[in-house]
């Protein structure tokens, strides 16, 4: 089972290497065009090159996330030997990009996160941008709140005016009803009620 798993891993990594080499070739071609043909380079050509690179990178990421791909995070890269002296075998393997694997370079080569200084600078930029956005939003929210408070106060004043008007009308009606003489005689009403019940 382990031999089969190792073979699947090797084939998967080989496929990823082929895709990565295709991306590198496309990048090299694009950089060559930018460097040597920048006078005749048109914007649609630049966009086509970016689209090609974007498609290849998306394809590589999709291949890495594929169910057929073994979980590469379970296979960490560990340097076998660290040396301050140049290594011709390593130079040949990396096609001249890495000449030695020393104690100072290895953390940078195997880093899976940005450099701490870069992370700090990124956090600071995000924080500054957040503060700018927050201040702008705070001002807009304050303006909205002030307009809502003004509208609420206006509505409250309208309701208060209606209540005052209704109360004034009620008082006027009460005063008017008190000033009118009664239209019946209470004593006569009592006599009529007593006659109806008792005869």
UniProtKB/TrEMBL annotation:
Subcellular location per the Swiss-Prot or TrEMBL entry: Nucleus
Origin superkingdom: Eukaryota
Gene Ontology molecular function terms on file: transcription coregulator activity
InterPro entries, alphabetized: Mediatior_Med8_fun/met
Main location as per UniProt: nucleus
Entry GO terms, CC: mediator complex
Keyword vocabulary terms for this entry: Activator, Nucleus, Transcription, Transcription regulation
Signal peptide annotation: none
An individual GO BP term: regulation of transcription by RNA polymerase II
Family: Belongs to the Mediator complex subunit 8 family.
Subunit structure: Component of the Mediator complex.
Function, in words: Component of the Mediator complex, a coactivator involved in the regulated transcription of nearly all RNA polymerase II-dependent genes. Mediator functions as a bridge to convey information from gene-specific regulatory proteins to the basal RNA polymerase II transcription machinery. Mediator is recruited to promoters by direct interactions with regulatory proteins and serves as a scaffold for the assembly of a functional preinitiation complex with RNA polymerase II and the general transcription factors.
Name of the featured protein: Mediator of RNA polymerase II transcription subunit 8
